[in-house]
Amino acid sequence: MTIEVRQVCHPEAVRHFSAAELRRHFLIEALFVPGQVKLTYSHIDRLVVGGATPAREPLVLESHKQIGSPNFLDRRELGVVNLGGPGRVTTDGEAHQLGSRDALYIAMGTREVRFESADADSPAKFYLVSTPAHARFETVRIGLDRARRVDLGEAANGNVRTIFQMIHPEVCRSAQLVLGMTQLKPGSMWNTMPAHVHDRRSEVYVYFDLPPEARVFHFMGEPDETKHLVVANEQAILSPGWSIHSGVGTSRYAFVWAMGGDNQDFADMDMVPIDALC
Fold first, then answer.
1. What is the DSSP letter of 101?
2. How far apart are CA 49 and CA 221, in angstroms?
3. Among 225, 234, 242, 265, which is most buried by a count of CB atoms within 10 Å?
4. Which of 259, 90, 106 has the alpha carbon at shortest distance from 176?
């Protein structure tokens, strides 16, 4: 297992970042490395983001000095979403079968987490997001059929999309982690426009279902000093609470969003009118 540490960046400093500096601080370029658990520890709300890609042998989620406890989940909770082939996640001896786009909430206090692929030639790609936790809840598997579904957007604006709220107070109890998936309809390229910020929570995005040649232009930064990152398939973005987060793709795509912070109110956001963006 490898873990990279990212420090917090003040918005006044980010105003002067080059494209390379933006990518170094906010873009996670390689999530899924065959045969590895690869993590990034962000000091933005102490989010841990990464991927576990088991090949022929199982992978185990281990702790690290940065985590500060003997077991990874002693003081944390974990959301897992499978973006690859069928696989299995075993938590303290209990097996959970995850197909493509299935999620699993893993409770604080779980001592062992093991990842396996059903077929090494079509490996599972377990996307991982962890936040600090203050209480233990139930470990739960959540498929799209169990998620809270919200349909938004208009074809005329190119943003018709379905939001599947998976780790969400109305679906699955958690300490602070909120997680879901957004899928765009054919012909739609925009997500989350008009943009917003939510200073009470930070967020992380992973974009997927992009063809190799396609990209998402992810917009970030303060509303009066916007920036953008060019994002490829299966790359993730760290989004601090002061930053807008919106994107437009060169083709259809999907993404998993996850949040941690002071509340779990999905609608707690400060909208930014389009004419206020610079």
1. T
2. 20
3. 234
4. 259
Distance CA 81, CA 251 (A): 22
Top-confidence residue, 46 or 194: 46
Token readout for 152 is 């938004």
Which of the residue ranges 18-32, 115-129, 185-199, 202-216 would you say has the lowest mean pLDDT?
185-199
Tally of structural domains, the chain: 1
Closest CA to 124 of 54, 42, 171, 31: 54
Q: What is the CATH number of the domain that holds 228?
A: 2.60.120.10
Could you list the residue range(s) of the whole structural domain that residue 77 is in?
2-134+147-276
| Cβ–Cβ under 8 Å, residues 208 and 253 | yes
Q: Under a CB-based contact definition with an 8 Å cutoff, are residues 206 and 30 in contact?
A: no
Cβ-Cβ contacts under 8 Å for 65 (sequence gap 6 or more):
none
Query: Among 190, 191, 174, which residue's Cα sits nearest to residue 259?
Result: 174
**Is 72 within the bounds of a domain?**
yes
pLDDT at position 201: 82
Does 174 fall in a domain? yes
